[in-house]
Amino acid sequence: MKIELQAAGLGEGIGADVPPVSLVLTEGAPIAISVEGDEQPLFVSMLLAGRLKPDTGRVLVDGRDDTSALRDAAALVDTPWVAEPAAGVALQNVVMEELAFAGLPSTRRAVTRVLGEHGLEEYGPLPIRALPAADRVRLFSELAVLRPGVSMIVVTSPERHGATAADWYAPLAAIADRGVLVAIVTDVATTSALVSMGTQNLSARKLES
Q1: At residue 199, does pLDDT exceed 70?
Q2: Whole-number pLDDT of residue 202
Q3: What is the domain range of residue 52?
Q4: For residues 30 and 124, what is the distance between their CA atoms, to the nearest angstrom?
Q5: Residue 58, C-beta contacts closer than 8 angstroms, at least 6 positions apart
Q6: Hey, CA dihedral for 197, 198, 200, 204, is it positive or negative?
Q7: Is residue 155 part of a domain?
Q8: Domains: count for the chain
Q9: Each residue of 31-84: pLDDT tens digit?
Q10: Is residue 112 part of a domain?
């Protein structure tokens, strides 16, 4: 899968939510896209995943200007406001909803099995906020990949829950190794940390405002 932004942006002028940007995302190692500000991670994530159409330029999926296809192929992971479960909801309920969304059995037994596969059984009845940050990124990303037709995940601001890049990068790299395009929309400091880790083949891009 190949996603190409051709001078794509949201809004215009110096107050644009996303200034025009051109970049290419392809399968392989995860791609870190560093942004600044409180709202830009949300807007960039939604643009990459086809949830918002650009006001300027184009977003192509495999060479086609097809927002519907991009929306079907891309899953937002823990994106604030649009794909972030409420902090007080029990983890087992979130997993149940994700399994149902993926068209898979969502019984109590199925939920227990999924949590067991990830070593998180004890967190099942607890609220989402009790889940360690690195496990949150790993589990939510794996659940997103279960959805039919998903070949790209956009992980938004994983640093905001407190874990360092070293805590959650390896699970995302493992997903990328399975042929899923993994885009990480994060802040400048986290991108710099990923680069300094020497993560093999990591592609890092910075959106200039």
Answers
A1: no
A2: 72
A3: 2-73+133-206
A4: 29
A5: 5, 6, 7, 8, 65
A6: positive
A7: yes
A8: 1
A9: 999 998 889 999 999 999 999 999 999 999 999 999 999 999 999 999 999 999
A10: no
Instruction: In whole angstroms, give the CA distance from residue 54 to residue 9.
Output: 5
Q: What is the pLDDT of residues 61-72, one digit of tens each?
A: 999 999 999 999
Residue 143: give its domain's CATH number. Answer: 3.40.50.300
Q: Binning pLDDT at 50, 70 and 90, where does residue 150 land? A: very high
Q: Is the dihedral of CA 185, 186, 187, 191 positive or negative?
A: negative
Other beta carbons within 10 angstroms of residue 67's beta carbon come to 16
> Could you tell me if 31 and 176 are in contact, meaning their C-beta atoms sit under 8 angstroms apart?
no
Question: Do 91 and 123 contact (CB within 8 A), yes or no?
Answer: yes
Give residues with Cβ within 8 angstroms of 174, minimum separation 6: none
pLDDT tens column, 89-101: 999 999 999 999 9
CA distance 156 to 41: 6
The closest alpha carbon to 140, from 191, 107, 192, 175, belongs to 175
Which residues, at least 6 apart from 64, have a Cβ–Cβ distance to it below 8 Å? Answer: none
List the one residue out of 107, 94, 195 whose CA is nearest residue 136: 94
Residue 182 covered by a domain: yes
| C-alpha distances out from residue 54 to 13, 45, 57, 75, Å | 14, 12, 6, 18
The answer to the question of residue 122 being in a domain is: no
